[in-house]
Design a protein that fits this description.
The chain contains 11 helices and 10 strands. With 373 residues, it is α+β, with helices and mostly antiparallel strands. It folds into 3 domains: 118 residues, no CATH class; 138 residues, Immunoglobulin-like; 105 residues, Cytochrome c-like domain (Cytochrome Bc1 Complex, Chain D, domain 2), CATH 1.10.760. It binds heme C (HEC) and copper (II) ion. Copper (II) ion binds next to loops.
């Protein structure tokens, strides 16, 4: 019986092996994105190994079952084999079938453990990026250079058919340098995952997780938050632009200059006009607050309160400052004092107090925010 089975098995197994091997998947259309870092290459190989083993086993088992059901059907008067356990196969299969399964398992496990070792490799990095997840955006801090990038979803009008993949400020990284990521979160669990360049790691409030990468190829790599983090979970894409070291150094010195100018502006104690504050505030509000409170201030009651006509937004300024700076514990309203500077907060609060017919006429200055902190 075994001999009769061999031919159809081989006929099926060979093409399926070819299908599962690298060549057929070279375009990565139906597979994981092309890996471009040491870790993701190993993860990809591991994925291919397990997928190939699983595919071969599935094909073999399906073939044997289909063949047996058809060949040994009752209408052909086949009787169940009463002597199976007395033949050599019946005697020894109890031993060698589990041994084969164990062998395959150990092959996969051995390969996986070397991948884990590589993931946990703690060789010192050339640069460190702290990645903070919040509802619903990513903040990237280049630790050595004191530069911070806030990265949020690019609106549909600007992103077009790449909506939900594109962000306003991508994370720029140099190729061929070792980058260490430190993962954390401000509110709930998030997970930073860009399949082409780095493994998935949970971002946990109060904890720091670590991953690393060396990107071997310039390009734009995309990912998503991979931990269900609330109603905006689908709206926090990740975009990494990998550029050569030279280009990166140039980009970084520009960012440093921008950061310094911003800090100087915020610290200058300058008094802004209502119009200046409103213009700046609208932009910042739409970027940071409109996901929950909506661009027209109508919110999403009962969870996210409207700010149009809200008692707090048109009432006492100090209460308004307090809820925005310190947040509201136990709710999705974050403590924005940690994320935005005095000028940004002054502009947003001024905007909330005057937009959507709130018309209080109040111009909140950076010095007011500073005093309220
Ligand atoms: C992730 C969702 C979310 C985002 C983003 C958000 N808020 Fe809130 N906000 C809330 C929730 C929820 C409350 C209600 C808190 C409570 O019930 O104590 C709230 C309450 C407020 C209130 C008090 C309103 C009232 O009538 O009670 C103000 C003012 C406010 N937010 C301003 C802001 C500003 C300014 C930003 C952007 C810098 C912002 N919020 C971003 C969720 C959010
Ligand atoms: Cu998230």
């Amino acid at each position: 019986m075994l001999n009769r089975l061999r031919k159809p098995c081989i006929a099926f197994a060979v093409p399926s092996l070819l299908l599962a091997s690298g060549t057929a998947f070279a375009e990565y259309k139906f597979n994981l994105p092309e890996p471009v870092s040491p870790v993701t290459k190993e993860v990809f190989d591991l994925h291919m190994l397990t997928a190939t083993v699983a595919l071969i086993i599935m094909v073999l088992v399906t073939l044997v079952i289909t063949y047996s059901i058809f060949k040994f059907r009752k209408s052909k008067d086949y009787q169940a084999d009463q002597e199976f356990h007395n033949g050599w196969f019946g005697t020894w299969s109890w031993l060698f079938v589990p041994a084969i399964v164990l062998g395959i398992d150990l092959t996969i496990a051995g390969s996986a453990s070397s991948t884990f070792d590589l993931i946990e490799d703690k060789t010192p990095a050339d640069l460190t990026v702290k990645v903070t997840g919040s509802q619903w955006k990513w903040t990237y801090e280049y630790m050595e250079d004191d530069v911070k990038i806030v990265s949020s979803l690019l609106p549909k009008e600007e992103a077009g058919d790449r909506y939900l993949r594109m962000v306003d400020n991508p994370l720029y990284l140099p190729t061929d340098r070792r980058v260490r990521f430190l993962h954390t979160a401000t509110d709930v669990l998030h997970a930073w995952w860009v399949p082409a360049i780095a493994v998935k790691k949970d971002s946990i409030p109060g904890y720091i997780n670590e991953t690393w990468t060396i990107i071997e190829k310039e390009g734009n790599y995309h990912g998503q938050c991979a931990e269900n983090c609330g109603t905006g979970h689908a709206f926090m894409p990740i975009q990494v632009n990998a550029i050569s070291g030279d280009k990166f150094d140039k980009w970084m010195s520009e960012q440093k200059a921008i950061t310094l100018a911003k800090a100087a502006e915020a610290a200058s104690g300058k008094v802004l006009t209502l119009d200046e504050l409103m213009a700046k505030g609208e932009e910042l509000y739409n970027k940071n607050c409109s996901a929950c409170h909506k661009a027209d201030g109508s919110g999403l009651p009962p969870v996210f309160p409207p700010l149009k006509g809200s008692v707090i937004a048109i009432g006492d300024i100090s209460e308004h400052l307090d809820v925005v700076i310190n947040g509201s514990s136990g709710t999705a309203m974050a403590a924005w004092g940690k994320q935005l500077d005095d000028l940004e907060l002054a502009a947003i609060i001024t905007y909330e107090r005057n937009a959507w017919d709130n018309n209080t006429g109040d111009a909140v200055q950076p010095s007011d925010v500073k005093a309220a902190r």
